[in-house]
Amino acid sequence: MQTLQVDLGERSYPIHIGANLLDRPDLLVPHLVGRQVAIVTNETVAPLYLDRLHRSLEGRQVQPIVLPDGESFKNWETLQSIFDAMLSNRHDRKTTVIALGGGVVGDMAGFAAACYQRGVNFVQVPTTLLSQVDSSVGGKTGINHPLGKNMVGAFYQPSLVLIDTSTLKTLPRRELSAGLAEVIKYGLICDEPFLAWLEDNVEALLALDDASLTYAIERSCAAKAKVVGADERETGIRATLNLGHTFGHAIETHMGYGVWLHGEAVGAGMVMALEMSRLLGAISTAQRDRAIRLIARGGLPVVPPEAMTPDDFLAHMAVDKKVLDGRLRLVLLKTLGEAIVTDEYPKALLEATLTANYHDIAEEAGINRESK
Ligand code: NAD
Ligand code: GLY
């Protein structure tokens, strides 16, 4: 087992990463406050892992709260059902909310913990690759609004992130690829050597090779912990973690939550950010193509949805959280392995990015039509 730390003063917390950690009460129990525990999970994850987590909480008063599965349920109604369940069972301020599931469960359970009686103890037990490398770390919680992705929420840090890498054995391949989008993101924004490692190991990751997965999770969590420790509330560098997300969130909102997976939208969104970085002269065509090939090898889409026009993108991007004083800031690359956040780009260049032919770009990068 490997342990990393998110350094946030008295709100610092450990990230434990290893196989079969669901069966380790010694890691979990020290992070509970009182006797009560609400395990928030969903109907897919509960039959797989709820009993094991429950066994590690022996002697506690445990209430499972099983939500419907899917991004389309990341909303007020589902959040309200968590409060209904907790209040009906008289959870007090010493209760602990444990999120057992992917990023959807984690974001909603965390927001519920932030709001319930103005804030109760919270633990993340992420079970998708995406949630293990990204969403469980850093305290962003929230729900979607029909007009914008993750537009309602709170910064609320967990007191523990417990990553059981063996839960990935049951993850569908499409979800594994979605998680790889965020893994590749770290290479692109801050870690060029990791990008090179990913080029050598992406197939091993897709084949669920234990050692490769553990290494990728550790390296991703280390990158995220460092950024969050430096800029918890996203006043600066944390925004770089959103490479591809402004384009990606537009795709998710426009297509309907859950139609494109978050990681898939980020995959195509990163291709758009790469193209815009190339148009700005920050990266070469060869660098853009190298990154696009890796995204495609990860099993991710590299072409945005045909159904979306540039105006569709612009309309959704106007409600992005990176809009400040009416100016849309974008995360772009300075080079492979270094990102910047800027609102200083010619509008024509954004338009060129939105009107570019991504089928042609993918072909230029050497990706054939079938694998796009
Ligand atoms: P998800 O939570 O929808 O999980 C994907 C699917 O896998 C679901 O059907 C889920 O039930 C299933 N599943 C989960 N664990 C499984 C397992 N071990 N075996 C089999 N099936 C399993 O999606 P996700 O990709 O984990 O998370 C995406 C969400 O995370 C989005 O809402 C996104 O906005 C959010 N997100 C948040 C942050 C953050 O910093 N808070 C960062 C990135 C993404
Ligand atoms: N996933 C982006 C962030 O945590 O800031």
Automatic annotation (TrEMBL):
A UniProt-annotated Pfam family: DHQ_synthase
Alphabetical list of InterPro entries matching this protein: Dehydroquinate_synthase, DHQ_synth_AroB, DHQ_synth_fam, DHQS/DOIS_N, DHQS_C
An annotated GO cellular component: cytoplasm
CDD domains per UniProt: DHQS (cd08195)
Free-text cofactor note: Binds 1 divalent metal cation per subunit. Can use either Co(2+) or Zn(2+).
Uppermost EC category: lyase
UniProt pathway annotation: Metabolic intermediate biosynthesis; chorismate biosynthesis; chorismate from D-erythrose 4-phosphate and phosphoenolpyruvate: step 2/7
Enzyme Commission number(s): 4.2.3.4
Origin superkingdom: Bacteria
Role noted for this protein: Catalyzes the conversion of 3-deoxy-D-arabino-heptulosonate 7-phosphate (DAHP) to dehydroquinate (DHQ).
NCBIfam families: aroB
Protein name, UniProt field: 3-dehydroquinate synthase
Source species of the chain: Pseudomonas matsuisoli
